[in-house]
Amino acid sequence: MRSILQPLISCFFSLVAVAPNAVNAQGAPRGLYGKSVVLNWVNSVVQVGADGRSSNPTIAAQRVAYISSAGRLFVRASRSHVGSGRRRQSDIAPGDTQNRGGEPVQMRFEGGRLVSTVGFIAGAGRAVATFDPLFQSCSLEVIYGKVAGGGMSRKGIDGTVYRIQSITTLSKSCTVQDGNALASN
After folding, report:
1. Which of 13, 78, 99, 118 is the most exposed place for a label (fewest CB within 10 A)?
2. Dist CA 90 CA 142 (whole Å)
3. Rounded distance, CA 59 to CA 79, Å?
4. Where are the extended beta strands (E) located within the chain?
5. Between the CA of residue 185 and those of 63, 131, 133, 164, what are the distances in Å?
6. Domain count, the chain
């Protein structure tokens, strides 16, 4: 598995470094113009803080992407601690290369799939939406990768940097909706 994830991480950081428009709809399928794609997943995370204490939060993540009638991609990304009310949210416009927390982000279409990637302090996460031929439904795959020899670390919702020991995706969903779902959120 590590041999598969290491190229993912290297490729991601290469793309972020050279991508002039990290959030764009280049190659967006016409069948998605004027629609929103909503990606949801829930992770169980085992993490260790700088104080050495281990915790196991359940984190809900969401990406709401609106593809305008002009083919421009607008994204709202959020993650929250399930049950605690703590939440981080970023609105990411075409041309943005970082989320509100300063992490490198990229959301774009690759071969008709919508790919969302976020870089951590060490490691990265990637969510890929694959669509049916009529762009009426989609499925979601979520992958996390560690940096060789460095593991994975990320600033938590509370602002603390955690060393992530494991991430397990508990549930995931993907939906396609007519119109701008960002206007109603």
Report:
1. 13
2. 19
3. 7
4. 35-49, 54-55, 58-67, 73-81, 87-92, 105-110, 113-119, 124-131, 138-145, 152-155, 161-178
5. 12, 23, 28, 30
6. 1
How distant is the alpha carbon of residue 29 from its chain centre?
Answer: 20
What's the Cα-to-Cα distance from 109 to each of 18, 26, 58, 72, 128, rounded to whole Å? Answer: 16, 6, 29, 11, 9
What is the C-alpha separation between 47 and 55, in angstroms, rounded? 5
Q: What does the alpha-carbon distance between residue 84 and residue 183 come to, in Å, rounded to a whole number?
A: 26
| Gap between the Cα atoms of 163 and 155, Å rounded | 9
CA distance 157 to 153: 13
pLDDT in tens, 31-76: 999 999 999 999 999 999 999 999 999 999 999 999 999 999 999 9
Which residue do the tokens 């049916």 mark?
132
Q: 65 lies in which domain range?
A: 2-183
What is the Rg, in whole angstroms, of the alpha carbon atoms belonging to the chain?
A: 16
Give tens-digit pLDDT for 75-98: 999 999 998 888 999 999 888 999
Neighbours of 166 (CB within 10 A): 12
What is the pTM assigned to this prediction?
0.83
- What the block records as the tokens of 133 is 């031929």
